[in-house]
Design a protein that fits this description.
alpha+beta; YaeB-like fold; globular; 36% helix; 95 residues
Length: 95
Protein backbone atom coordinates (compact mmCIF):
# COMPACT_ATOMS: atom_id res chain seq x y z
CA UNK A 1 0.00 0.00 0.00
CA UNK A 2 1.13 3.54 -0.62
CA UNK A 3 0.90 5.75 2.46
CA UNK A 4 -0.04 9.39 1.90
CA UNK A 5 0.34 12.14 4.51
CA UNK A 6 3.33 10.48 6.13
CA UNK A 7 4.03 13.99 7.44
CA UNK A 8 1.23 13.61 10.02
CA UNK A 9 2.98 10.57 11.46
CA UNK A 10 6.28 12.46 11.62
CA UNK A 11 4.72 15.53 13.26
CA UNK A 12 2.98 13.39 15.88
CA UNK A 13 6.11 11.41 16.71
CA UNK A 14 8.01 14.69 17.11
CA UNK A 15 5.51 15.80 19.78
CA UNK A 16 5.36 12.29 21.32
CA UNK A 17 8.81 10.72 20.79
CA UNK A 18 7.77 7.44 22.46
CA UNK A 19 5.30 6.91 19.59
CA UNK A 20 8.03 6.83 16.94
CA UNK A 21 8.85 3.11 17.14
CA UNK A 22 5.25 1.81 17.14
CA UNK A 23 4.24 4.22 14.36
CA UNK A 24 7.26 3.18 12.29
CA UNK A 25 6.32 -0.48 12.82
CA UNK A 26 2.77 0.22 11.59
CA UNK A 27 4.17 2.06 8.57
CA UNK A 28 6.57 -0.75 7.65
CA UNK A 29 3.80 -3.33 7.76
CA UNK A 30 1.22 -1.41 5.72
CA UNK A 31 3.70 -0.13 3.15
CA UNK A 32 4.90 -3.66 2.43
CA UNK A 33 1.46 -5.24 2.16
CA UNK A 34 -1.27 -4.91 -0.47
CA UNK A 35 -4.63 -5.29 1.22
CA UNK A 36 -7.63 -6.04 -0.97
CA UNK A 37 -10.34 -5.89 1.67
CA UNK A 38 -11.21 -5.09 5.26
CA UNK A 39 -11.01 -8.80 6.04
CA UNK A 40 -7.38 -8.97 4.87
CA UNK A 41 -6.52 -5.83 6.82
CA UNK A 42 -8.07 -7.24 10.00
CA UNK A 43 -5.92 -10.38 9.73
CA UNK A 44 -2.89 -8.17 10.30
CA UNK A 45 -4.54 -5.57 12.55
CA UNK A 46 -7.46 -7.36 14.30
CA UNK A 47 -8.33 -4.43 16.58
CA UNK A 48 -8.87 -2.02 13.67
CA UNK A 49 -12.26 -0.33 13.76
CA UNK A 50 -14.23 1.29 10.97
CA UNK A 51 -15.65 4.58 12.29
CA UNK A 52 -17.41 7.26 10.24
CA UNK A 53 -15.91 5.94 7.00
CA UNK A 54 -12.36 5.83 8.35
CA UNK A 55 -10.16 3.08 9.72
CA UNK A 56 -8.93 3.49 13.29
CA UNK A 57 -5.74 1.63 14.19
CA UNK A 58 -4.65 1.07 17.79
CA UNK A 59 -0.92 1.76 17.85
CA UNK A 60 1.63 1.43 20.63
CA UNK A 61 -0.28 -0.88 22.94
CA UNK A 62 -3.47 1.16 22.68
CA UNK A 63 -1.73 4.45 23.57
CA UNK A 64 -2.27 6.07 20.17
CA UNK A 65 -4.83 6.06 17.38
CA UNK A 66 -3.94 6.39 13.74
CA UNK A 67 -7.01 7.30 11.69
CA UNK A 68 -6.84 6.69 7.96
CA UNK A 69 -8.89 6.51 4.81
CA UNK A 70 -8.11 3.39 2.83
CA UNK A 71 -8.84 2.87 -0.85
CA UNK A 72 -8.31 -0.82 -1.48
CA UNK A 73 -8.82 -0.46 -5.24
CA UNK A 74 -5.92 1.99 -5.65
CA UNK A 75 -3.82 0.55 -2.78
CA UNK A 76 -3.69 3.93 -1.02
CA UNK A 77 -3.80 4.76 2.68
CA UNK A 78 -4.34 8.40 3.62
CA UNK A 79 -3.32 9.23 7.19
CA UNK A 80 -5.97 11.68 8.35
CA UNK A 81 -5.07 11.99 12.05
CA UNK A 82 -2.72 10.59 14.65
CA UNK A 83 -3.91 11.22 18.20
CA UNK A 84 -3.43 9.96 21.72
CA UNK A 85 -5.97 7.59 23.21
CA UNK A 86 -7.34 10.46 25.34
CA UNK A 87 -7.70 12.80 22.37
CA UNK A 88 -9.50 10.07 20.45
CA UNK A 89 -11.96 9.50 23.28
CA UNK A 90 -12.75 13.24 23.33
CA UNK A 91 -13.49 13.08 19.57
CA UNK A 92 -10.90 15.79 18.91
CA UNK A 93 -10.10 14.17 15.56
CA UNK A 94 -13.60 14.56 14.15
CA UNK A 95 -14.20 17.58 11.99
Amino acid sequence: MRVISYKRKVEFSTRYPESRIPLNSWYKIVSRTDYNSIAELKRTFPSTDYVDGLFVFNVGGNKYRLIAAIHFNTKMIYIMHVVTHGEYNKNKWKV
